[in-house]
Amino acid sequence: MWYIQTLVTSFYALADRNPDIIKCAKSELELHADAIFLATESLINRNEKTRQLKGECVHIHRLKDYSLHMVLSPVDFFDAGWGQRHGFSGVKIPRPLTGGRQIDLPSEYLLIYAPRTKEEVTLVMGLISASLRYLTGAEVQ
Questions:
Q1: Backbone phi and psi for residue 58, each to the nearest 5 degrees, phi listed first
Q2: Where is the Luciferase domain (predicted)?
Q3: Is the Cβ–Cβ distance between 112 and 68 less than 8 Å?
């Protein structure tokens, strides 16, 4: 599963190349996972989606199957055809399910399938870039 290591390495490298826009930290939505967060309060407060997620943009399920959660514009998602809406997209998750935390997921919150090849890693990294562009209005390197 060398391609999984490529995904993880690319994930962190993306954050390292764009420190003015994003940073890595422990996910607040998926325990036991690192996530890419928006780097500044002004980016977090840019729109309702980024505020709902408290700046968290994408995380990889490293202890599970290496699928990802992220927010994508509806156009990017339907063009890619590489995932499905999260079961709690667009709703307030009941506190008993979240350890007492209030989590409201945007309707564009998606489960992206785990890549299985080098080409699919490239596709998933493209989706991450599209997610960040949608959430920040900025291009990432």
A1: -160, 145
A2: 55-131
A3: yes
pTM for this model (two decimals) = 0.88
Could you tell me the two tokens for 42?
């002004």
Task: Give the phi and the psi of residue 84 in degrees, each rounded to 5.
Answer: -150, 160
The CA distance from 27 to 39, in Å, is: 14
Confirm if 83 and 112 have CB atoms less than 8 A apart: yes
Asked whether 114 and 66 are in contact (CB, 8 A), the reply is yes
Cβ distance 133 to 139 under 8 Å? yes
pLDDT tens track for 15-70:
999 999 999 999 988 888 999 999 999 999 998 889 888 999 999 998 889 999 99
Q: How far apart are CA 100 and CA 80, in angstroms?
A: 34
Per-residue three-class SS string for the chain:
CHHHHHHHHHHHHHHHHCCCCEEEEECCCCCCCEEEEECCHHHHCCCHHHHHCCCEEEEECCCCCCCEEEECCHHHHHHHCCEEECCCCCCEECHHHCCCCCEECCCCEEEECCCCCHHHHHHHHHHHHHHHHHHHCCCCC
